Amino acid sequence: MEQGPTASPAEGKQPVRPLKDGYLDHVFSIFKAREHPFVLLECSALRWMGLRVSAIEDFDLLIRDSEMPFIEADLLATGQYELVEQKLSLRLSDTYTRQVPRLRLKTNDSETHYCISLWSERVYMLNVDGEKIAVPDPVAWNVILMEERFDLDPSWAQAVPIGYTTRINEGVMILPPTLAQSADVKYPIYIPTIPRILDALLDQARYRVTYAENFPRNQGNRPEYHIRNFVRYLHLEKPQQRERLLRGLAERNRGYMEASINKFKRKPLLTLASFQQLELKKPVR
Fold first, then answer.
1. Which residues contact 122 (CB under 8 A, 6 or more apart)?
2. Comparing 4-8, 78-82, 129-133, 218-222, which segment has the lowest mean pLDDT?
3. Rounded-to-5 percentages of helix, strand, coil across the chain
4. Which residues pair with 194 in a beta bridge?
5. Which of 198, 193, 271, 274 is nearest to 236 (CA)?
6. pTM assigned to the model
7. Strand intervals (E) in the chain
């Protein structure tokens, strides 16, 4: 991904990736040959879901359990990748992610790199063949909400809308300067719906409670971190959003999600008027 004047204004440093359109064409050809949907997860997906998270150097993909060994083998057979360990510093020190195969692009160019992490359905606790939403590229150059039924309204969120239609109409740059697919490759790219990915994250969070002995307290809690970010950035504590989300979740997860929402305390929005009021209340010395 090109850096410099075109860099995204979103949080965090953008990972550097190849500068030629179609740099993932060979990956899409593997998925097409196996008739396997190309489904994004983790930060790759979350930025299309309206969460202001930094892009990392990994493309996280959801793979059918039955296809997992074959897609990994196909990618390695291209000769372009090597199998490496998960970089826990990018995963909130979550050792659960060590079981996720990570393939790094072989390159002599230190300025160009990316990795592909393959999450099986079993590990992510999410099926490939559920409801999905199409996105135009694996990379969201700016944060955007594709599932517009969860868009924000200034009348109750004290925040600007971030839905796809609004952002496009405002001229916000959505796509990166370098596209993953070349012009003649049009393989669909998907993200799970927000309720479905939250169901998966809630199941993962509950798994950590059930098997607490495998997750020392000094480790990061990746699923809980993502869940809190959904509450924060989509204003899920607001009645409109809460009701809309909860009815889309599996019944087993509604209580857990409500508890997470209830624990969230939003900081008051600091405006010029409120700042001036705070200054007036300070004692005179």
1. 65
2. 4-8
3. 40, 10, 45
4. none
5. 198
6. 0.87
7. 38-39, 58-63, 81-84, 102-105, 115-120, 132-135, 189-192
